[in-house]
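Continuing the series of single-chain predictions for the mutant panel. This is the parent chain; the variants come on the following pages.
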Amino acid sequence: MLQIEIDRLNKHYAGFHALKDINIAIPRGSFVALVGPSGCGKSTLLRTLAGLEKTSSGDIRIAGTSVIGKPPRERDVAMVFQSYALYPHMDVEHNMNYSMRLKRRPKPEIAERTRAAAETLGLGSLLDRLPKALSGGQRQRVAMGRAIVRNPKVFLFDEPLSNLDAALRVHMRSEIRKLHERLKATSVYVTHDQVEAMTMADHIVVMRAGVVEQQGSPLDLYDKPANKFVAGFIGSPAMNFIPAIVSPDGHSLTIEGDAATMLVLDRKLAPGARLWAGLRPEHLSLTPVAGSLAIDAVVASVESTGSMTFIMVAVGAQQLVVAHSGRPGVEKGGAVRLHISPRNIHLFDRETELAVSG
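Parent structure:
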């Protein structure tokens, strides 16, 4: 059953079209990430879901009921912001249950919901502490606890981990995902970090300039990007793109600026077509495998993190990044031969930037 339905949603600001015909269907209990660069409209979409922004046209339905025109308090959603927005003079317990006390809910209900949320989030021993005595991660859990006690139909997260350091972000990603699974909640999570989206979400919506570029499971977006933008946005390090031309027989590519390199395809394409060939850094190998294609390159630089080595290479006039597990023993200026399977070559039209399947 669908918990959220967004149907042809548009949002205008004084001549600026912020959201353009957005269509998204979110099943009950799913974790959906809205991801894209700054200014793509993802936070505007989340605020529109919450009722903090008015729609210009279109419909939003939560649990089958249209919420257009309804204020936030009548939408049964809870929002967790990048800023923790805790009351500094209230302890953890009173920060968490403040909204319930405002609604004059029965005291036993307030106490039970607060206890349950605190237990879920590991805050049971911190209920009497003020926010100033908490770490960043603890404050973020209090902010989530405040949302949990409301028992909403939908949780909305607006880049909640942006203020945390890298190590704590990794930990909190896991905590939020575990929390989602325990509560069997429906969650919509905004982030500019595609790694967060890939590791946390069941379903990802990639946005750019107010438009949904593609949506699907994390692996669908990784394996079958609909266009060059999605291909370059999903995956870390980002996909390499090299300009290429389809050979007269339609079965191979010639890299522009390096006529000596010919990539034989596993499909037939229109002869002479001008394409972008997309090669993921992790699909480029220094070791040949059965059926792989060879690309001769020169090492431009080497960056090692210990377990991984990132090798920047030149193929003619083109620059590529190779992600290698371990320490390959290559040096700047050295010649290397790269290998890639034909099935791992993504192709995009040079003009439309849409994926080309052949």
